């Protein structure tokens, strides 16, 4: 009897470790909270490919677009916390939306567990070449001479580009009319067509049009100038320090996901980011690969959320 009892205790102690070693035992669902074809989707699919290679199980990408990424993020938050549903989190979904929307069906800091950061991407401010300004100083002077007459395009209310436009107005004392679009594609088209004067965007989508001369870049974010546009100053160089942040992409899971699974997923993320082919695909998206720990990513989300709340309050942005 004593031997049997001892064996039962030993098996009980070993069971959790065995379960952890078996993970993953089936396919993992990766929710991308934006439509297929965008930068978040591209990054999500590269990460899915890398996770499959590292974990040895299929990783199925599911696009759950809508409400600026909030629908997909809510789906992640409400999924079973078993490690088989994870998702992509971005500056928009984890910082801007929680700051701007009053009635989100989830609390970023309560209902989600950060796994780790994937990368950062520069933001860029550009103008239509017909605008009579050769650099930022000239543009600010022009905007001050014509309050409300110039316009800027964004990818939609509460988007990264919307917040950048509001930050610019607050920092420079200018009044530029906001024209929100249903995504970055239409915003780019109208900026190139001259229907709006200014565009704030992530670098990857604007870069081809900038290089082709259809848009004139004024500033870019980052701790140093971007090699893709070495002649374009950073916002910090121009004194616009508050605008010098980079948008982030990371992996998240539902709150309550066991710490051991979060640690395994973070380990897999760091490993895949070091695979040369995967890393090259990510860098080709004009992003800075920047993996970190769950704790570091959680702290970054908190910082960005605090900053976005300040901008939303100052600009009196209210979204339902």
Describe what you observe in this structure.
- With 320 residues, this protein is of the alpha/beta class.
- 46% of the residues lie in helices and 19% in strands.
- It contains 12 helices and 11 strands.
- The strands form 2 sheets. It has a 6-stranded mixed β-sheet with strand order 2-1-3-10-4-11, with helices on both faces. It has a 5-stranded mixed β-sheet with strand order 7-6-8-5-9.
- Helix 2 crosses helix 10 (259-273) and helix 7 (160-172) crosses helix 12.
Topology:
Layout: H1 2-22, E1 28-32, H2 39-55, E2 59-63, H3 70-78, E3 85-90, H4 91-100, H5 108-111, E4 112-121, E5 123-127, H6 136-145, E6 151-154, H7 160-172, E7 177-180, H8 184-192, E8 198-202, H9 203-211, E9 216-220, E10 247-254, H10 259-273, H11 276-283, E11 287-289, H12 294-315
Descriptive tags:
alpha/beta, six-stranded mixed sheet, five-stranded mixed sheet
**What does the average pLDDT come to?**
91
Major β-sheet profile? 6 strands, mixed
Helix percentage:
40-55%
The proportion of residues in beta strands is 15-25%
Ranges where pLDDT stays below 50 over 5 or more residues in a row are 5-20
Radius of gyration: 22 Å
- Reading the helices and strands in chain order gives HEHEHEHHEEHEHEHEHEEHHEH
Give the helix/strand class.
alpha/beta
Given the C-alpha coordinates, what overall shape results?
globular
Distance between the termini: 65 Å
For the secondary structure, the number of strands is 11
Q: Tally the helices: what do you get?
A: 12
In spatial order, strands of the major sheet run: 2-1-3-10-4-11
